[in-house]
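Subject: sequence -> structure tokens, single chain

Hey, anyone have a minute? Need the predicted structure for the following. Not urgent.
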Amino acid sequence: MVPLLALAVFINYVDRGNLATAAPLIKGELALSSTQIGLLISAFFWTYTPGLVLSGWLADRFNAYHTLAAGLALWSVATLLSGFAGGFMALLVLRLVLGIGESAAFPCSSSLIARHVPSHRLGAANGLIIVGLSLGPAVGIFFGGLLMAELGWRGVFLLFGAVSLLWLVPWLAVTRRLSAAPAPAEGRGGPSFGAILRRPEIWGASLGHFSVNFGFYFIVSWMPLYLVQAQGYSLPQMATVGGLLYLLYAASSFLGGWASDRWIQAGGAPNRVRKTFFVATHTLGAASLLACAAAPPAVAIACLFVTAMAFGAVGPHIFASSQTLAGPQAAGKWVGVQNGFANFAGILGPIATGMIVDRTGGFEGAFVLAAAMTLLGVVGWGLMIRKIEPVGWAET
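Reply:
Had a minute. Here:
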């Protein structure tokens, strides 16, 4: 089940990242400004963000298996139909539909992992999920970029949307027995959203997750245009550099999750292990983003690779910490709320970046903003959460 969840997240990021990869082509063909591109990227999060809360409730209250399957089917169809879009408004509507469908991925996967995976294996399980998250953009930007050079951006949207639907075949076959079984008693309903919102840990986790998302979405959403427009790369060159960045992100995610599990099995307290990773990776990510703003081109590209390594290493701990805090009975709702707040970064970041690029004619200010937001994670994870341990819901 866990590899199929990782594959779903992989497909999720391939499909959501298509627009960023195609941005240089779409911008020219449809005569869009950078601000309009930013709006299209942001529009995904207008529905994705509230959809996370709904998906978390559906996953905990009813059936996470079926919720995830329905969400994937919806976002695959939206991806396919984007290949027929004739202008800005059509793309905008389809990005809104895409956001609704893709909101099922993380609340459902966290609910299922919290239910089936023991605490000392959470790092590896979530590491595999983040590998899927990182390989999605890698494949999307590398193969998508190369395919767009041959098929055009419309052909790639049609192809990727159709192929995404094939995931439903193994998922429905493998989880048929599990999805038919009733949820354990402690998993039905669980604590209310009000009880979750009263916990200070959810606000620290939400700020920390927002911080990661702001920096990561900046890279995912704007790196293709940055490499082509600011660094003068061709589309195939952009695809190669972008693909390598995400491969490093994937390797760092897997190693970060594996190393944390080994540390915990060797006697390290989960709180100490998780917080060490959080503080170190946020600091490194912020420093490397800031360096990109002032460094010469070759050094700036090297700093992007350091940023990818930092964001990859922190990924498994975001969800492992949430699953530890919430427990099986509340993981879907908790991650829905946390990820919902965190994805305001996807609403605000792309618009702010587009405006900065249009007004300044460069990406330097955008890198500075992303660095500052990334550093906020030290406050969220390190200070606002007193201790990463299971919440006593009976006491709330």
